[in-house]
Amino acid sequence: MSNQLKIKISIANRVYPLTINPSQEEGLRKAAKRIEAMIGQFEQSYSVRDKQDVLAMCALQFAAQVEQKTIDKEYVNEEVQEKLEALNELLHNHI
């Protein structure tokens, strides 16, 4: 546990102390910046006064992105599988 790093991340005007692996620092800091930027966009686009509402909207946005990537990946995997099977059939028919 001696190789752990203690950092502070600020999100929505609150500071969160974290103990992390050094390899996680860059990703966490980038994620915090993205959240802050998204908070700014939501606050500018909508008249939201409650930070909890803005954070819920951010969470929904990020979760939707993750789910969409999963759906897209499944579609691509199915498409690749179909093409590989077709190619395999062509090779078997040619041999």
TrEMBL record:
GO biological process: cell division
Short name of one Pfam family: ZapA
Alphabetic keyword roster: Cell cycle, Cell division
Entries under SUPFAM superfamilies matching the protein: Cell division protein ZapA-like
Name this protein carries in UniProt: Cell division protein ZapA
